[in-house]
Amino acid sequence: MANASGLAMDHLIPGEFTNASSGTKYRIHAEDGAAWLDFDDPQTPPAKGRMKLDYFLGSGHLGITYLYSLNKYLLESPAAYYTSANGYDMKPGFGGLREMPPAIPMEATCLRCHMSGVQHSDPGSLNHYSEEPFHSGGITCESCHGDTREHVLTGGKAAVVNPATLDPERRDSICMSCHLEGDVSVEKDGRSPVDFKPGESISRYLSYFVYVSADATARGVSEVEQFNTSMCKRASGSKMSCTSCHDPHYTPPAAERVAFYRGKCLACHNQPSFVREHHPENPDCTSCHMPRSKAENIPHVAWTDHRILRHPAMNLADASPVRSDDLVAIFSPSSTPRDLALAYYAAAMEGHSSDRERAYTTLTAAHQANPDDVQVLRSLGILAGTGGDSQLAGELFRNVLKLSPTDQTAASNLAVVEVRTGDLQGALALLQPVFNRNQDSLGLAMNLAAVECLLGNGTAARSTIETALKYNPGSRELTNRLQQTSSCTARLK
Ligand code: HEC
Ligand code: HEC
Ligand code: HEC
Ligand code: HEC
Ligand code: HEC
Ligand code: HEC
Which residue range is the domain that position 111 belongs to? Predict the structure, then answer.
């Protein structure tokens, strides 16, 4: 885990490829002691340039992605390295675009599992970091033992967290905080998982939800979920945990792997007759009881079967979940109806449109229970807006901004409402500060430029587009709009 991330030059794999659908050529290489991503998009007008890569993310087990920062906006390279293909291609989901993809913002919630000492982005910005976005690459001691600098500074007086002495929920929270995602996870009111510290319960920060499938044990995406369905875990209870098999300070090299895990199994399965008679021909317990699945090339999905089944023939690949429509909380003792409402909302936003109605009803109830819950207000506002009730949406977004003045989602959505009702100055006043904090956002730039254009200020619209083009050099939408800005002045003046 120590190699989970770091400086780009410490793990740079040079390579190049051309993305077939856009015709863009990418090259990743080192020059003058720095790592670079060159891009060359032959469209008219062409987009050609380079980004200096700062960090790598991923040990390379599955693949590696690189991060760069531009005026302190932290962004992800659209080109990723795939270990299985031994080469570069577009980042997952971006292969079919007809042009270079827009800037990909790196949020702290994404960094938090891959780096150590991850900081929040600046208030009101998705991915602008005035300070360093994180203290160090990789998963360091701090990720599991808390702030060890404090320990050193106080000459050992400030305690380091020892996971072994925590109660089971807090102990398990450490691994869970990074190894569990669920189908949907929801931030508790006013909290961000970026603030989670070892020694706390992750359920203070997140509630996790999954779609219940017909066979609950067949489901299982993460190691955490699968392991908890295993007979070993169910029969052993809280005395068994991830560290019954894993040493967080040591990954056994290939040659020791079999003996290492066998030793862990035998710590419990130690009846002499069993050890003597149970498959003496094959010392690798895990080859039969914890086989590897085909999911090996998908990030964020377990590929070693942590259900520890008796009958190894059952393949993980056959157990693809039969998804029902109901979300249930897992490992979230303090989950509330409000969290569930937000989970349905998240599902609805991901295209599960049948959840829209349910999200609306349950969010409305959550709003009545606590009118000051920003996430609930914001989500209801978006549902109202997309459902055509601009007036209600506007009211809800205004309430969000009263409680959280830098909320970029509320401000940008309220601006759209105000454009609809003809209040262009109001929309401008909302959009300008949001864009100033999120200059890499193509969508915000398009909206702000449209308002500036409607107000007859072609110069401002042009400057907005030019700013966004620095971060989205291949965007045809932006270059087309740039051509229109001169005529918008002429028309409205
Ligand atoms: C909840 C924690 C968590 C979050 C959030 C998370 N990841 Fe991961 N990621 C992991 C873990 C753990 C692995 C290791 C493999 C596994 O268990 O699936 C991983 C694996 C990866 C890999 C493959 C690395 C390799 O070793 O080959 C990439 C690339 C990756 N993540 C990128 C991202 C990006 C980009 C984001 C943000 C959009 C993100 N991850 C968010 C936990 C997380
Ligand atoms: C991925 C999480 C993780 C990381 C990273 C990690 N540890 Fe640990 N550490 C643990 C866990 C869990 C235990 C308790 C093991 C057990 O169950 O006995 C532990 C135990 C220890 C102990 C024994 C404590 C005691 O009093 O018994 C020491 C010392 C220690 N770790 C030092 C370190 C140092 C130094 C680093 C950084 C180089 C580090 N650890 C990184 C998870 C981690
Ligand atoms: C801060 C986030 C974080 C925490 C906390 C964390 N992990 Fe991880 N772990 C990761 C990431 C990220 C990877 C993938 C690294 C990669 O391949 O890029 C990983 C990889 C692993 C791996 C596979 C590769 C290896 O290094 O052996 C194991 C096993 C693992 N973690 C177990 C644990 C256990 C057990 C705990 C709790 C004691 C734990 N992790 C806590 C983030 C975390
Ligand atoms: C912390 C103790 C512990 C560890 C470590 C452990 N197990 Fe278990 N396991 C149990 C208990 C308790 C049971 C239930 C009683 C029994 O069958 O012995 C069990 C049951 C099983 C079963 C039967 C499952 C079923 O559905 O009937 C298998 C197979 C198994 N373990 C394999 C393993 C393997 C392989 C390992 C190592 C990779 C392992 N166990 C590690 C405690 C453990
Ligand atoms: C009974 C033993 C056992 C327990 C308990 C266990 N693991 Fe594993 N885990 C393994 C084995 C074996 C592997 C495969 C290691 C290898 O092939 O090098 C593995 C692999 C992993 C990997 C690498 C990705 C993958 O799926 O292959 C991660 C991450 C991981 N475990 C996390 C966890 C977490 C988190 C927990 C606790 C919720 C946990 N494990 C509990 C035995 C166990
Ligand atoms: C060659 C494949 C294979 C290997 C290697 C293997 N097992 Fe098994 N194991 C099985 C099968 C198959 C069963 C189911 C037997 C049955 O249902 O009659 C089983 C059953 C078990 C059970 C359930 C209790 C019992 O006696 O039926 C446990 C516990 C277990 N294995 C643990 C282990 C451990 C620990 C190791 C390594 C020391 C191991 N197995 C190695 C195939 C294997």
Answer: 5-139
Residues of the chain with pLDDT under 50: 214-219, 316-318, 490-493
12 plus 103 within the same structural domain: yes
Tell me which residue has its CA closest to atom 25 in ligand 2: 162
Residue 151 within any structural domain of the chain:
no
Q: Which of 139, 156, 181 is the last residue of a domain?
A: 139
146: CA distance to ligand 2 center in Å?
10
The letter for the amino acid at 144 is C
Pick the residue whose CA is nearest to atom 34 on ligand 1: 110
Q: Give 413-420 contacts, CB < 8 A, sequence gap 24+.
A: 413/381, 413/382, 413/385, 415/447, 415/451, 416/385, 416/447, 417/385, 417/390, 417/393, 418/394, 419/450, 419/451, 419/454, 420/390
Mean pLDDT, the chain, whole residue set = 91
The answer to whether the beta carbons of residues 295 and 274 sit under 8 Å apart is: no
**pLDDT score recorded for residue 155:** 75
Distance 238 CA to ligand 5 centre (A): 17
Could you count the other beta carbons within 10 Å of the beta carbon of residue 132? 10
Give the pLDDT score at 295: 60
Give the global pTM: 0.94
Query: Which pLDDT score is estimated for 212?
Result: 76
Q: Pick the residue whose CA is nearest to atom 11 on ligand 4.
A: 232
